[in-house]
Amino acid sequence: MNEEYINRLIELYFDGSTTLEQEDELRRILADARPPYSPQIESAMAVMGYTAVMQARPAVSRTSVLRRSRMAMMAASVSIMLAVGLCWMLVSGRYNPDNSCVAYVGGEKVVSAEEVMMIMDSQLNSISLAHDNFESELIEQHQAISEIFNQL
Question: Is pTM beyond 0.70 here?
Fold first, then answer.
């Protein structure tokens, strides 16, 4: 191709006057061009390359940007509300890590950690004893039924 024809196509491209066929031809010519490049060819390569890259990139819609910013604002609001609530609990004395072990026994509130642990230990021992008794009764009943069936 002669350089005058290429420069004419570039000029038409920058004026926005090329047809689709001329634009495709110019892309092919620039893709096959070998250095040294004229300043006009370098400019056309840069602009057409940028245009091709931007067309290939997925577009970010305005609604998705707004949706993300709304989500960020909601997350920030929730964080602020949690921080304010925690501060209020600490200042008002509603949260005291020393009194965090609480049990209600017979309708009475028990806050002593040692007493709560003793009550839990006693209850677990009662459950274990009931399990052992149930297991031995179950074995006795099974043996009695087996004896009845063995006699038949």
Answer: no
